[in-house]
Amino acid sequence: MENSGTTDLHVKKFDPVMVAPYLPLPKSTLQLSTIDNCIILREIANILLVYNASDSISVDPAKIIREALSKVLMYYFPLAGRLRNKENGDLEVECTGEGALFVEAMADKKLSVLRDLEDLTNPSFQQLFFSHPLDAGIEDLHLLVLQVTRFTCGGFVVGVSIHHSVCDARGISQVLKALGEMARGEIKPSLEPIWKRELLKPEDSRYLQLDDFESLLPTSKVEKMVQASIFINSETVKYMKQCIMEECNEFCSTFEVLAALAWIARTKALQIPHNETVKLFFIQDMRRSLNPQLLKGYY
């Protein structure tokens, strides 16, 4: 049993357990799309679901969610497998049926304490998720982890950790919807999941050759990386938009203003020479832009 905590919140975690699909499934190997194989998507996405206490609920939420997870994995069986590296550097999913990881935990405070944790980098939040070892390779990562943490008031939170290479944001919400349906006693998800990654495989797989900016980056070793949340209020955003309008006579969206501010700060921090051109890439949901569109249920 693991005991961890900070000055704000103390969470006692029980030993993790593997939850396999409700029925054994045949083993197989699934390919990822070109987009899924992007390096920037090879990370764990964390989502925190918060549920207040209810007098009408007398069952153990951890037990219900654990049983629902086993049933969900029957339909979303790739999440019960593991990622594997191919010889060309791409990833594939080995559907081994090992299962997803499930963790039960107890917090020493009421659920209302979370309202005081506005800074998402607060270590207290990290206790509500399962943490893989820092030296874990991509083939060692669990594709789906659920941690159910109960609070003294009867409320609970579900910390969801899911690998982005296997499931995008829309797909994650689809999985969680299915989990809720199974927890409420439904026989199967209302939306049938569809893998079909070949729909996003390009006919021409040539790669664009980008300029090498390695020589532009500082060679000195970074002593310490710091994670922080920066809060910019609406008045500041409004002021920046107004300045741009007065100087350039152009309207900018809130996203454009904040992205430009962050990108300028980053290029300064990297000490990139002023005469160099840098490009900003960002991720967005492209489903509505596709023609033909992806099949309903694609995750």
UniProtKB/TrEMBL annotation:
It comes from the Eukaryota. Pathway: Alkaloid biosynthesis; taxol biosynthesis. Coiled coil: none annotated. It holds the Pfam family Transferase. One of its GO terms (molecular function) is acyltransferase activity. Keywords: Acyltransferase, Taxol biosynthesis, Transferase. GO terms for biological process: paclitaxel biosynthetic process. InterPro entries: CAT-like_dom_sf, Plant_acyltransferase. PANTHER family: ACYL TRANSFERASE 4 (PTHR31147:SF1). Belongs to the plant acyltransferase family. This is Uncharacterized protein. It comes from Taxus chinensis.
